[in-house]
Amino acid sequence: MPLAHGVGGSADLPLPLDLVLQAGAATVVLSFLIAAAVWTRPRLAGHPQRPVRTAGKLPGLRMLVLVASLYLVADALAGPRSAANPAAHALFVWLWVGLVPLSALCGPVWRAVNPLRTVFRLLRLPRAGLRPGPGAGVWPGVLWLLAFVWFELVAPHRTDPVVVGCALLGYAAAQLAMAVLRGEEWFARGDCFEVYSELAGRLSPLRRRTPLSGLAAPFPAAYRGAAGPAAFVAVWWGSTVFDSASGSPAWAGFVQRTGHPALSATVALTLVCAGVFLAVRKAARGLDVTASLIPVAAGYTLAHYLSLLVVEGPRGLLLVIQQWGLAPGAAWAVVPLPPVIAGAQVTLILLGHVLGVIVAHDAALAAGARVTAGAPGPAARPMLATLADELPLVLFMIGCTWTGLLLLFVR
Amino acid sequence: MRVLTGLVLLVSSAAFTVPALLGMTTLLSAPSLLSAPALFAAFVLVVSSASIAVFAQLAMLALTRRRPVRPDPPAPAGAPLAGHSEPLPPGPAALQRRTLRTVPFLMAALALLPGCASAPAAQAASPAACGPAARDQVRADAALREGRAQPAPRRVSVPLGSQVRLGISADTAADIHVHGYDLRYPVQPGQPACVVFVASRPGLFDVEAHPDILLLQLEVK
């Protein structure tokens, strides 16, 4: 039996048109209301950040995750080479998709439980590294993320458990080698899942007293500049956009006409990510869009993968249990109701959009306040100047939201 | 930078033609103009065409306005909205710019015109593989020719609970897989395969020739 579709694709109906139109109108109205009327002074910046705990009360959890990872990798390599193997579920659903809601809720969880860090500590490798240095900041993480999304969306035989297992082993070996070279803090900028979790974790309402203040916090110094995180978010969002678009019949027809599916998909994926990166960097002069794109990307990712998470996440767990001979007849055959899924998708996209606009607006206000900090009097820059400054940014975000909605409509 | 902003604005305004056109078609096909969908479509049409106009105008401003010669105020001038803060130079240039401002509105009107005269797309001729469909059946045919679907992959709308009569012909031996319903069956060259099943699950399901040549998508709702 051919082994394709180890993870069933989502079978969501495209968003209904009326919902898309309503949501599109709502984005425009909400953006301008928030930007102009409701939010008139900066409120987010300057709140203290709690550092992430990497030790402390977590060793049990770390060990648990390490054992689970080792078991899943071993199972991928030695277990049944069929759709009954949970390897693809573990990598593509639990880790890749599940990390977003978990981080958005609890903060950068992967940093706390990263099994590679645990291995690094258990092996007593040199914590400071053999040749410590800042290196290229977060750019290695960006490239690893690009490699991962290529593996997830384009690579042939990507759901074959042996391929998944080998890819994971290779990733772990490369990461550990780099960590030996650069020290343990390599993981914070070189392990794409940790960066992913860190960026999505900025949304977490549990970690900070002021909601959203995490998004206004500066990026870690190890990232070295704003271009790296921007590229990371661009790859994150761009890959999800590509995944949506490549599910359409039009894309399938194009690929069949050109005849090189892997090549065209690779080129398209790279182009989409590069395009998003350019837009992120150039859309707003001076203003940093990255932080405000994080909620947009998280909302879109959740909207796009919602049914996959609901349907295939528990199914993977069931596969693990059934491998042990338990619950042989059980099946997870939940079919989400299309209207509920559509409503949730639109809600998530709109929520991401609103949060993004708030963060962007707040950043613009704070920048304006900084510019006039030396000037006497309480009056900061005129509101209109700030609005004019952030207009390209807000338009860019409206464009992102429209893109997301339309993609879920044509999908 | 200014050019890029202008281009982004232009693209945004172009993107707004989609809801405008959709609103227009909805409006045109509505049975009564006083029903809720028609009123909503009208609202969408108005909002999106206004947005087209505003965005395109801002784009024009961003693309045509020159940087002031003496940038003495340190405040960040040059945002596309700030056209009122600096007096336009008098003379023919100002006149030209003023006429330029009407261009976006004309463009928006032009963009809306095709919506009035949109004809239904021509139906692609589908290869007969499956015989005539019964009354309540939805018929979907596709052919696999030289590794590609013929006609090009498309979406077939199927009412929930109706019977689907799916006919596939191929020029090589292939495995056909209907996702979601998990139907798998082989097709031989010269022997079209025909499957009839009840579309009992809502969703969007691929019909593929394995490994991954998409033939068509069934949209069951």
TrEMBL record, chain A:
Coiled-coil spans in chain: none
Keywords: Membrane, Transmembrane, Transmembrane helix
Spans through the membrane: 20-39, 60-79, 91-113, 134-155, 161-181, 212-238, 258-280, 292-311, 317-335, 347-371, 391-410
Keyword Transmembrane: yes
Region forming the signal peptide: none
Domain of life: Bacteria
Full protein name: Uncharacterized protein
Species the sequence originates in: Actinoplanes teichomyceticus
Organism phylogeny: Bacteria, Bacillati, Actinomycetota, Actinomycetes, Micromonosporales
UniProtKB/TrEMBL annotation, chain B:
Taxonomic path: Bacteria, Bacillati, Actinomycetota, Actinomycetes, Micromonosporales
Membrane-spanning residues: 39-63
Top-level taxon: Bacteria
Annotated keywords: Membrane, Transmembrane, Transmembrane helix
Region of interest (Disordered), residue spans: 69-94
Protein name as annotated: Uncharacterized protein
Alphabetical list of InterPro entries matching this protein: Cupredoxin
